[in-house]
Design a protein that fits this description.
The chain is α+β, with helices and mostly antiparallel strands and about 110 residues long. Helices cover about 25% and strands about 35% of the residues.
């Protein structure tokens, strides 16, 4: 991905844990924002190219399916959300409710 020269990358099914972060950060070289799953399920991540030196705030869910970030570049504010929705339709309604709550909470937090 370093060779692609993109500014933002969205990863899903990272199968990552907190203990993986140091190795990933060293290898990536830029900023990384996680909502970890386990070594066998879930997990999302947003990677920011190392050339970006702006202020970022982040928020994640407890179910390892949502990561939200706000990036401020001069006076321009950008919001990014990486969502990994469940495939099981019985879980989707509660997931959408949680997503709406998370976005509402994050909007309130990011306006401070």
């Amino acid at each position: 991905m370093k060779d692609q020269e993109a500014t933002v990358y969205f990863l899903q099914e990272t199968f990552s844990k907190v203990s993986d972060e140091a190795v990933w950060r060293t290898d990536w070289g830029g900023e990384m924002y996680f909502s970890h799953g386990t070594s066998q399920s879930k997990g999302v991540c947003i990677l920011i190219n190392r050339a970006v030196k702006e202020k970022v705030t982040s928020s994640s869910d407890t179910d390892s399916r949502i990561i939200l970030i706000n990036l401020t570049n001069n006076s321009l504010k950008l919001s990014f959300c990486n969502i990994y929705a469940p495939n099981d339709h019985t879980q989707q309604v509660s997931f959408i409710q949680q997503l709406n709550e998370q976005i509402g909470n994050y909007n309130s937090y990011s306006r401070r």
